[in-house]
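Example record

The entry below shows one chain as it appears in the dataset: sequence first, then C-alpha cells.
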Amino acid sequence: VDDNHVVLVRQYRYVQKEDFRWEMPTGGIKPDEPPEEAAQRELGEEAGYHAGRLIPVSIYYTSKSVCDETAHLYLGYDLTQHKLPPDDTEVFEIQTFHFDDALKMVRNNEIRDGMSVIAILHAALLRMR
C-alpha cells in the first residue's frame, strides 16, 4: 500500500446495530504492552499488514466524561502483508481505498467511527504540509 491509499476494515458493531461500517484498524492495548506494539499487532490481526514505520500522530481521550479510555493514533507507512489470526469475535472485510475516497466517505457519513474520522482528518492535515 502506498502513501495515496488507506487500509480500512468493514465490520459489524453490535452496540450501534447498524449495517457493516468501514473503519480504521483499531483495538485495545494489552497489559504492559507499549502502544506502538499494540498498533502493529492490531494492524496485523485486523488488516493483515505490518508497518515498516509507525508515526505517532495523536493521543486523545475517546470520551472525557464517560470513561478514562485513551486512544493512541499512529499512521503506518511501508506496509507489507503480515496476516495474524483475528480475535474470535472479529468478522470483517479488508479493502484498500484511495485516500481521497476515504476522505469523501468521512464527509458523506459513510465512516462514522470517531477514531477513524479523527485518523483520516489528521492524515489529511498532514498531507497538506
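Notes for this example: Residues 24 and 82 are 17 Å apart (CA to CA). The domain at 5-127 is CATH 3.90.79.10 (Nucleoside Triphosphate Pyrophosphohydrolase).
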